[in-house]
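Ticket #4471: structure export looks truncated?
Reporter: QA, pipeline team
Priority: medium

Steps to reproduce: submit the single chain below to the structure queue and open the exported record.
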Amino acid sequence: MKKELVFPVIVGFLCGLFFAGATLLMFNPNQGKPIQILPAPTEQPIKVYINGNILSPGIYEIKKDSRVDDLILLAGGFVEQPGDSINLASKLYDGQHLLIPYLWETDTNKTIEPFVNQDLININEATEEQLLALPGIGPTKAQAIIAFRNDNGYFSKIEDILMVPGIGEYTYNQIRNLITINQVITKRSE
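Actual output as written to the record:
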């Protein structure tokens, strides 16, 4: 072939490819599914029951990882100031029950612990040291409980502790009457 014809042949070939591709696109549209843009996942709120020295006691939906102070504000605040005995910075969790004491019901020299009963250990809040007080729970199992809780969120029932690696029926039967998942700020005096 002559050199003068090479360039027009290449240009003609490329133009032919372009028109063939354009024709295919026009008469054979994409058969795939349309792309859907989904909204970002939102965290489910938790439900917490609050009563006692509160203007509007009841069950409230609140953002996960909220604090006691956030819930008290949502519930309208205190009927009367309860003193400094409540840990307002304590984190809330789903299914929690908070009983806010009146000042006359509390020992003002003592911060109220976040446990339902001093004999029951709240597996949703307990430190490694507190978990070690349970029979059959050594450092490895205590760390496994805390790691499971950190990775999966709070336990919703005490039986959920069976999902922790290393906790079996035997250990569960030893501790089931010594643990709780509910956090109550205080008990009323009787």
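Status: closed, not a bug. The export was complete when the record was re-opened. Leaving a note from the reviewer for reference: The two ends are 110 Å apart (CA to CA).
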